[in-house]
């Protein structure tokens, strides 16, 4: 199975778990943010399959932080987009400092898992 197919499967799996985590009250809300970052890592890896994992991790963290800080912006069109399901899933709503930690943990986990899987496959 190619690496790209594995990353697509991982993205779909992470989205499913992330959506499910919102329905289970025992799971902390930040878990979804970590899963979102992991899915973004997999998406970037899918696109840039030949880049070093470290670059993918740094890019994922940068995008995650930009998205989180963008939640402080209150432009009408952006607020309207965030109020849609897709907008809320992609860009979130409301800046929370703890989300930054969730992104770091999610990216670190995705990096470590990808590194392990790629070492095992070679």
Would you write up a description of this structure?
This protein has 122 residues and is mainly alpha-helical. Helices cover 77% and strands 0% of the residues. The protein has one domain (3-121). The longest helix has 25 residues, at 97-121. The relative contact order is 0.16.
Describe the secondary structure blueprint for this structure.
Blueprint: H1 3-21, H2 30-47, H3 53-70, H4 76-82, H5 85-91, H6 97-121
Helix pairs in contact: 1-2, 2-3, 2-6, 3-6
Number of strands: 0
Total number of helices:
6
Structural class: mainly alpha
Number of domains: 1
Low-confidence stretches: none
Morphology = globular
Percent helix, as a range, is: over 70%
* Beta-strand share of residues: under 5%
Largest sheet: none
Q: Strand-and-helix sequence, N→C? A: HHHHHH
The Cα radius of gyration reads 15 Å
Mean pLDDT: 92
Distance between the termini: 13 Å
């Amino acid at each position: 199975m190619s690496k790209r197919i594995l990353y697509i499967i991982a993205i779909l799996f992470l989205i499913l778990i992330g959506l499910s985590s919102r329905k289970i009250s025992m799971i902390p809300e930040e878990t979804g943010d970590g899963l979102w970052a992991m899915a973004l890592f997999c998406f970037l890896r899918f696109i840039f399959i030949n880049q070093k994992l470290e670059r993918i991790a740094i890019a994922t963290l940068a995008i995650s932080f930009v998205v989180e800080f963008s939640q402080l912006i209150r432009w009408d069109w952006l607020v309207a987009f965030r109020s849609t399901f897709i907008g809320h899933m992609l860009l979130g709503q409301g800046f929370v400092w703890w989300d930054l930690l969730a992104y770091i943990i999610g990216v670190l986990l995705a990096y470590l898992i990808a590194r392990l899987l790629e070492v095992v496959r070679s």
